[in-house]
Specification:
Largest sheet: 6 strands, antiparallel
Radius of gyration: 16 Å
Number of strands: 9
Strand content: 15-25%
Number of helices: 5
Length: about 210
């Protein structure tokens, strides 16, 4: 299960309330009950209900998980649109979005089989959550250092380093340094009602705290 999220800062409240009905609408479009969607996302029904009513702030990893469960993208969850699925996304059009301390910029069009993001991962955020889901992920470190756990192996990636892996391998990412890490992130969008998307804290390592 995901650990409880902290209350959202004042500047994010308006965005948070705008996201809530979209989460509910996309769950219903996917023909999933609250209980089924919560189970597939590794959440409790009560937690998902609080997300859908705007009482809880969804983190970016949580949004990625829900996007996979609903067979959609984070952009759709946030109600964002990219005109006519343009092949080119200009830097000036990449507006930052914050979710649970993470910051991301949409780096590709919606409605595709993959989602591309530029992401800033703060130090101590979501480092204890191990994820497993169908599909593939590719990431490339732009700035800072990333601690990547794949199965029983942990690697430290620096600027210019990349990783491409099967998402069914239990994995976890965390920023190594206090300034966080910035990376390019691409993942496939696959809906799988039987997938276990969040295994919870890894008991073999100490908890990462903010």
């Amino acid at each position: 299960m995901h650990s409880p999220e902290s209350e959202p800062p004042a500047q994010e409240v308006e965005t948070l309330h705008a996201v809530a009905p979209q989460l509910r609408a996309l769950r219903r479009r996917a023909a999933l009950t609250l209980e089924a969607a919560a189970r597939d996302a590794g959440l409790s029904p009560a937690h998902l209900s609080r997300l859908e009513t705007g009482q809880r702030q969804p983190s970016l990893p949580m949004l990625l998980t829900l996007a996979r469960v609903y067979g959609t993208t984070v952009s759709d969850l946030l109600g964002e649109t990219v005109a006519d699925r343009d092949a080119v996304v200009r830097a000036a059009d990449m507006e930052p979005t914050r979710a649970g301390g993470w910051t991301y910029w949409q780096a590709g069009a919606s409605g595709r089989g993959m989602q591309a993001l530029r992401v800033h991962v703060p130090h101590g955020s979501q480092g204890d959550i191990v994820r497993v889901h169908p599909g593939e992920e590719w990431l490339h470190v732009l700035r800072g250092r990333l601690r990547l756990r794949l199965g029983d192996t942990t690697d430290l990636l620096g600027p210019g380093d990349s990783a491409h892996f099967d998402s069914l391998t239990p994995h976890r990412i965390a920023a190594q340094d206090p300034d966080g890490v910035e990376l390019l992130f691409v993942h496939t969008l696959l809906q799988s009602p039987s997938a276990t998307l969040c295994l919870g804290p890894d008991p073999s390592e100490s908890r990462v705290t903010p």
